[in-house]
Amino acid sequence: MPKEASRKIDKQLKPPLSEISRMENVARTEHAFLKVTKNENLGVYSDLFSAKSGIDGQDGGMVTALLLSGLRKGVFDAAIVVQRKPKNQKRF
Questions:
Q1: CA–CA separation, 29 vs 26, rounded Å?
Q2: Does 20 have pLDDT greater than 70?
Q3: Phi, psi of 37 (to 5 degrees)
Q4: How far apart (Å, rounded) are the C-alpha atoms in residues 85 and 91?
Q5: Alpha helices in the chain (DSSP H)
Q6: Residue 11 pLDDT more than 90?
Q7: Mean pLDDT across 20-25
Q8: Residues 6+ apart with CB under 8 A from 57
Q9: Short-list 69, 88, 89, CA closest to 79
Q10: Which residues, in sequence order, are bridge partners of residue 44?
């Protein structure tokens, strides 16, 4: 195996100490403050549910309904909503 390829693999297998420390801090915080489940595919979550609203939209408009209700009731002042773009789509 070429040395350069070996170095790249070694870097991937041995993260820097700062990254290890950051990951340990995240794990301690999750354990101390969150009653959650950690899943390799979903990440960290506390509960899962399926729902549908009366608002038309992708997947039943549930996110839109929650955002509208929260804004109207003053639960929060603003929301940032993002959409994942396909890998082959150009970015700005």
A1: 5
A2: yes
A3: -115, 140
A4: 9
A5: 3-13, 17-33, 62-73
A6: no
A7: 83
A8: 63, 64
A9: 69
A10: 38
Task: Give the closest residue to 57 by CA, choosing from 46, 67, 47.
Answer: 67
Collapsing DSSP to helix, strand or coil, 34 comes out as: coil
Task: For residue 67, give the nearest of 57, 79, 54, 55 by alpha carbon.
Answer: 79
30 Cβ neighbours under 8 A, 6+ residues apart: 36, 38, 44
Place of tokens 């403050």: 33
Which helix (H) or strand (E) element contains residue 39?
Answer: strand 37-39
Contacts of 62 (CB under 8 A, 6+ apart): 51, 52, 53
Amino acid making up residue 21: S
DSSP-derived letter for residue 75 is S
Domain range annotation of the chain? 1-46, 49-82
Structure tokens at 3: 């040395």
